Amino acid sequence: MRLFHPRALRWKIAALTAAACCAVAAVIGLLVQDANQDRLVDVGRQRAMAGLENMEKEVREREERPPNADLRPVDQVPEPLVRDLAEQARNGGRYGFWYQVDKPNMHWMWAAVVVDDGQVLIFRADMQVEERSLQLQNRSLATSVLAALAVVVPLAALATEPIVRRLGHGARTARAIADGDLDARIGRPGRARDEITEMSAAVDEMAAALQRRLENERRFTADVAHELRTPLMGLVTTAGLLPDDDEVAVLLRDRVRALNALVEDLLEISRLDAGVERAALDAVPLGELVTDVVRRLEAGPGVTVTVPAGDATRVETDPRRVERIVVNLVANAQRHGAEPVAISVTGDRVTVRDHGPGFPAALLEEGPQRFRTGASERGRGHGLGLTVAQGQAGVLGARLTFANAPDGGAVATLHL
Q1: Which regions of the chain carry the CATH code 3.30.565.10?
Q2: Rounded Cα–Cα distance for residues 21 and 31 (Å)
Q3: Cα–Cα distance measured from residue 301 to residue 412, given in angstroms and rounded to the nearest whole number
Q4: How far apart are CA 332 and CA 411, in angstroms?
Q5: Which residues contact 304 (CB under 8 A, 6 or more apart)?
Q6: Contact 322, 362 (CB under 8 A)
Q7: CATH 1.10.287.130 residue spans of the chain
Q8: CB count, 10 Å around CB of 68?
Q9: What is the pLDDT of residue 374?
Q10: pTM of this prediction?
């Protein structure tokens, strides 16, 4: 489901929120840790200082060494404590301190002072209780952060739902426009006045402008074809009156037929673009239908039809439109490809393959475009045959795909 897709926008925002929370928690945690550590060291110094002062007083008041006094020569004092004593002496102080950490559980605050006989009086304060308290605070902070994340992340994902829903609606509308539904609009901006609303309005304006432009182009194409049709009929009639043995007359009739076919294709495309065509569906045996169409074409021995033995698949389709598609595909293969042209019928699929240079890359990427064949090696033409075939496939609710065979040649497949 898209809802739980890891790359969905809601989870990206939730992850960003979680990362921000973790960053803030880390900064706060470090600040709290430093503050608590400083406080712990201050407490340790105060305890060690109090103990050292009491012990120093006891040493001075008694003539003999007290049993609990830790008096050492300088060379037996830990090096960090000696360095701090020297530093304090340079600054006019008497007492040195050292916080000893022997993980996991040995924490001592050392306090030292040099007494009259040159020895160093040392007092050590056990800091394990304070350290455990600090560790518990750190664990509590980490637990609180995890608990907050468990609440914040789902809430962040839910908070983005309106944004995701609006973006999804915009994406579906854009895909509908790309698929040919020029009436599709995002619409209804609601009370929100943000960048998504601005983008939605821009997409709707673009769709409306595109629709107007395409409608103008369709109207122009249809008008031109209709205006040409009447004088062309007169030209066809006149050409038919010319003598059959005249080479110029034969050439003229051939060009008139080509022009007439071009006009008829333009009229058919204008009807397909207008969306007024409707399929007259009927259950027909696809293999027999295609075989009969090719037979009536009289395309020659270079065009063959293959239907698996025993395949009597019947499809619900419009036979006239299927015939139109097959005729155009075969004509395109013969005109722009090379024989042999192999037509195969398998189930509800019709495949037409030639052995020419194949379809150009532009056609494979963008589909058939009127008045564009895409590559000079596929010969001259108007690019209307495949455009009509694709439009008729759309009326049937079928799919017409184009590809190139690995060993060469163009392959067009009609999926009914």
Answers
A1: 282-415
A2: 15
A3: 20
A4: 11
A5: 340, 341, 342, 343
A6: no
A7: 189-276
A8: 9
A9: 53
A10: 0.51
First-to-last CA distance in the chain? 29
- For residue 205, CA distances in Å to 176, 197, 289, 362, 371 come to 15, 12, 46, 28, 28
Select from 380, 403, 272 the least CA-distant residue to 325.
Answer: 272
Determine the length of the chain.
416
**Amino acid (one-letter) located at 63:** E
Scanning the structure block, which residue is given the tokens 């369709």?
A: 218
What are the pLDDT digits (tens) for 99-153? 888 777 778 888 998 887 778 888 888 888 888 888 888 888 888 888 888 888 7
- Sequence-distant (6+) residues with CB within 8 A of 389 are 324, 325, 328, 329, 332, 368, 400, 412
Query: 189-276, which class in CATH?
Result: mainly alpha
Q: Which runs of consecutive H residues, i.e. helices, occur in 91-194?
A: 128-159, 161-178
Distance CA 124, CA 213 (A): 90
* 3-state SS, one letter per residue, for 404-415: ECCCCCEEEEEE
Residue located via tokens 């340079």: 90
Instruction: Output the pLDDT for position 67.
Output: 67
pLDDT attached to residue 365: 85
Alpha-carbon span 368 to 373, nearest angstrom: 8
Residues 6+ apart with CB under 8 A from 260: 232, 236
pLDDT, one tens digit per residue, over 23-51 is 888 888 888 888 888 888 888 889 888 88
CATH value of 282-415 in 3.40.30.10, 3.30.565.10, 2.50.20.20, 3.60.21.10: 3.30.565.10
Maximum distance among all alpha carbons in the chain?
151
Q: Which residues of the chain have pLDDT under 50?
A: 1, 3, 378-379
